[in-house]
TrEMBL record:
It comes from Luteimicrobium album. This is RidA family protein. Belongs to the RutC family. The lineage of its organism: Bacteria, Bacillati, Actinomycetota, Actinomycetes, Micrococcales. InterPro entries: RutC-like_sf, YjgF/YER057c/UK114. It holds the Pfam family Ribonuc_L-PSP. It comes from the Bacteria. SUPFAM superfamilies: YjgF-like.
Length: 136
């Protein structure tokens, strides 16, 4: 599917740090992942450390994509939520995610948000993902 996904940065829009303003996919099947949290398989928060939480979220995204037969290269939209008002922290999260195994997912239409809180006590990051699926 990845070869059929078109990523565009239109003339006249600002440059980006790796994502694209527009992602176009042919009509077909899509997968909408629930927000992936830094929880392990038993449902426990992995750590209060931001990097450890980012790494767990990336692993969870990969596992969720794999179950539907796709990978980060087929992601067409991401939203990253980070509990912070600090732009430096937002940049740190972006850098760690984009250099992780799930990094190709963030070359598509992406949004990075600082938020007041997330759903689990101590949770610092969450990633929402939409992927185009191969034809069945």
């Amino acid at each position: 599917m990845a070869s059929e996904i078109e990523r565009i940065n239109p003339a006249g829009l600002h440059g980006t740090p790796g994502y694209h303003h527009v992602t176009v996919v042919p009509a077909g099947r899509t997968a909408y992942l629930a927000g992936q949290c830094p929880l392990d398989g038993a449902g426990n928060l992995v750590s209060d450390d931001l990097d450890a939480q980012i790494d767990q979220v990336a692993a969870n995204v990969l596992a969720a994509l794999a179950v539907v037969g796709t990978g980060p290269e087929d992601v067409v939209r991401t939203v990253i939520y980070v509990v912070t008002a600090d732009r430096g922290v937002l940049g740190r999260v972006w850098d760690r995610l984009t250099t992780s195994a799930v990094g190709p997912a963030f070359t598509t239409a992406s949004t990075l948000l600082g938020v007041a809180q997330l759903g689990f006590p101590g949770q610092l990051v969450e990633v929402d993902v939409t992927a185009a699926l191969p034809a069945s």
